[in-house]
Input
Amino acid sequence: MVSVNLRAPSRAEPETMAQIDSGALQDAVEWLIDGARDARLPQEVMAGLGARLLAVGLPLHRVALFVRTLHPNVMGRRFLWRPCAAVEISEGSYDFLTTDSYRRNPVQPVMETGRTIRRRLEDPDCPRDFLILDELRAEGITDYLIQPLEFSDGQTHAISWTTTRPGGFSAADLAALEAIRRPLARLTESYALRRVLSSLLSTYVGRSTAERILAGRVRRGDIERIHAVILLADLRGFTSLSDSLPGDRVVELLNGYFDALVPAIETAGGEVLKFIGDGVLAIFPVAAGPAAACGAALAAVGAARTALAELNATLQSQGEAALRHGMALHLGEVQYGNIGSRARLDFTTIGPAVNLTARLGTLARDLGRELVVSAAVAHHCPEGLASLGRFALRGVREPQEVFAPLDR
Output
């Protein structure tokens, strides 16, 4: 049991501004300390907390929780609660850090200094030092309070509280919000750590692989056999490109190439397992049948080729050489899981099907083709494909019939 102490209201405070139910407040604090077990998502925590604080007697109009995150594209997230409304979730990119909206936002100084900021908006002498204050005043808000949420690792995040009650927050209200702040910070930190872990795993190993790892597939040799369409793609002439251009420009070109390829793969339901220098290894698991997986892989290749053509048109308009690329598709069984040393593992695919796909990629280069497809894929999706004949591939026992799109 955690004891919550509320300062008695001063004589200057009207009685209606001090009706705080200390028992309900104690329950809300205990609920947070216990991990808000009936809530599984952050927005459910916000909804549950808002309802509990209204029951406490706090005159809340809206509550906004701001949490920085560790993600390559997302700087932070905001959870906005209002009574009788769904919790709104929004994300801010790193570009937001350079805007006036961020520089003149109270979230920034609270996170940097760890100090609480309060603005009594109905006071005619209230400073108008933050852009959001005019918006809040127009909404009828009379009092605005933003507090730091300190995590155990030293990071500071923020939560803001507003009310439309004349006179604003009372001393008892402020004491109740202070009692909520620390247990809320602990719970927020646990959710933030979970999201950071999931985001980083998804970023570096892919969404499905991340889910497997978080589900406990972490032991070396923890392998499953799956049927999938394997996609291998790479840039051609990358070595000479690297020798002839500054390193920063090479990285920009690689990122542009991957930006054309990866969204097409993921939109079609595939998963990028790894980047191998200038190459990409991806799979399309056979879930709804081999024909669906083959069709999804070919759709991804088509979308990627269109995006790469647009990228090349831009490069050529700037007087730069077009990027040359090659791709190969094959359908087969792969071993999918943890491989490596005791202390350093890689979640990847291996097997004869992966080796055959790599040989097809080499053949595509030798034939001057952007895409070649194995007979196993062409069998399920023959439309728009033509046989190039049978070829002996290094390390593959039997000659393989190979297909390519009719639009060379």
The longest strand covers residues 324-340. Confidence is low (pLDDT under 50) at residues 7-16. DSSP finds twelve helices and 14 strands in the chain.
